[in-house]
Design a protein that fits this description.
It is built from 17 helices and 16 strands. It has about 425 residues and is an alpha/beta fold. The strands form 3 sheets. The chain has a 6-stranded parallel beta sheet with strand order 6-7-5-8-9-10, with helices on both faces. Strands 11-12-16-13-14-15 form a 6-stranded mixed beta sheet, with helices on both faces. Strands 2-1-3-4 form a 4-stranded parallel beta sheet, sandwiched between helices.
């Protein structure tokens, strides 16, 4: 592994100056690494003194191009230049593994459930007295954390970051699942799968690789070197009833919890300590978040569900559902309700892609074209007015938020605000 001293001998181009790019430059400054240049396609004023006059020349001369995860080789205005120098492209996470210190790394990826799984792992480790930090795709750029003394570094890695990786080699690598996602960025499913499996590519034989049974053949096909561990869902469910936590009682997190349980075994955490730790865990907002109970109504904010596969768990684990869906659909996404329609009373379509969702669901369930969250909530409150059953008002859009909101967090916050206001007035 290279040290900070060796990094000083190398030259870099930081391409993309959002949160990640700025964290790289901050890391360089803290460690007196001066041989770098900085580029952003849109903002020419950021780190102006470090901006190369000739981008092509800079790419040719540097040792590495550190590409921000938001930059796509398929869509960048400089995609031809980037593709030409693709062999030089690395990510901010790669730098962690180039200067690896005496810490244990846990890297988690997957199409659904990454953030919650990472938070649960962090919670368990901290409750068992380990010094632990969590960063990456979950929000905090990982290079902002590395200077601190810790036992475990947990990294949530996106497919964008893994696609460019050349040095990521986790002590414990967890690939939770793969479903149809980010195909507009990767181009096709094959590229997306290959990006996810790069989490294992540079592991050594003394490191651990966690994949479920459905991904086992792909793991072997890609010749992973780590010790393969297949999480056992049945083993987790055998002890699940002992967990004193309402959030974990539903089945929605079981598959990913089987990974957490298997990891705890690999880390030699006793079952009693595993169970004790989970009693105080609180779920993340916007992920099947039960935020309001009013008479016979339960309100659930699942705004993070940006594909149907992510929404499927919420529909499966609820009943008498008044379902709000819609937004910007993922490329090639399909809504399959054959086995779920019995749980849904009515659906309410929001967003600017009404026809896409209407065409997918009209054969299976009744729908109302609401267009926005406020209208959908008001209509739901009219529809449930005279029902005596326990009702579930669920925002699980099966779509990205960008047609109406800045991000899924803003969408979820708006939903909660509206529900809290109107539910207390009309229920």
């Amino acid at each position: 592994m290279a040290s900070i001293y060796n990094l000083k001998k190398l030259s870099f181009l930081v391409y993309g100056l959002g949160l990640t790019g700025q964290s790289v430059i901050s890391f360089f400054k803290k460690n007196n690494i001066e041989n770098y240049q900085a580029w952003d396609d849109k903002n020419k004023k950021l780190f102006k003194k470090k901006r190369p006059r000739n981008l092509e020349k800079a790419m040719k001369e540097v040792n590495y191009i550190i590409l921000s995860p938001g930059v796509s080789l398929r869509k960048s205005v400089n995609k031809n230049k980037l593709i030409k120098h693709k062999d030089k492209i690395i990510t901010d996470i790669d730098l962690i593994f180039l200067i690896k210190k005496s810490l244990t790394s846990i890297v988690v990826t997957g199409s659904n459930g990454k953030s919650t799984t990472c938070k649960i792992i962090e919670h368990i480790l901290r409750k068992n007295k380990f010094k632990t930090l969590l960063g990456g795709n979950i929000g905090t750029p990982i290079l902002n954390l590395i200077s601190k003394k810790i036992d475990f570094l947990i990294i949530e890695a996106s497919s964008f970051q893994l696609a460019y990786s050349k040095f990521i080699a986790p002590d414990y690598a967890l690939l939770l699942n793969i479903t149809n996602d980010h195909l507009d960025w990767h181009g096709n499913m094959k590229n997306y799968i290959n990006a996810k499996f790069k989490i294992f590519e540079y592991q050594k034989k003394n490191q651990f690789s966690f994949v479920n049974s459905s991904l086992k053949s792909e793991f072997k096909k890609q010749n992973g070197s780590g010790k393969l561990i297949i999480p056992n869902l049945k083993s987790y469910r055998r002890i699940k009833y002992k967990i004193n936590n309402d959030y974990l009682k539903s089945d929605i997190n079981d598959q990913n919890m089987s990974y957490v349980f298997s990891l705890s075994k690999a880390l030699k955490i006793r079952n009693a300590d595993f169970l004790r730790s989970l009693s105080s865990f609180e779920g993340l907002p916007h992920r099947y978040e039960i935020f309001l109970k009013q008479k016979n109504c339960i309100f659930i904010n699942d705004s993070k569900a940006t594909s149907f596969q992510a929404t499927k768990g919420a529909l499966k684990n609820s009943e008498n559902i008044y379902w709000i869906l819609g937004g910007l659909p993922k490329k090639n996404d399909k809504i399959i309700l054959k086995d779920l329609k019995k749980n849904i009373i009515r659906s309410y379509i929001i967003g600017k892609n009404i026809n896409f969702f209407k065409n997918q669901i009209h054969k299976y369930i009744n729908y109302y074209i609401a267009k926005d969250l406020k209208k959908s909530i008001l209509q739901i409150l009219k529809d449930i007015k005279y029902r005596n059953k326990k009702n579930t008002i669920l925002l699980s859009p099966a779509a990205a938020s960008y047609d109406q909101f800045l991000n899924f967090e803003k969408r979820g916050e708006k939903f909660k605000k509206l529900c809290n206001y109107y539910a207390r007035r009309f229920i």
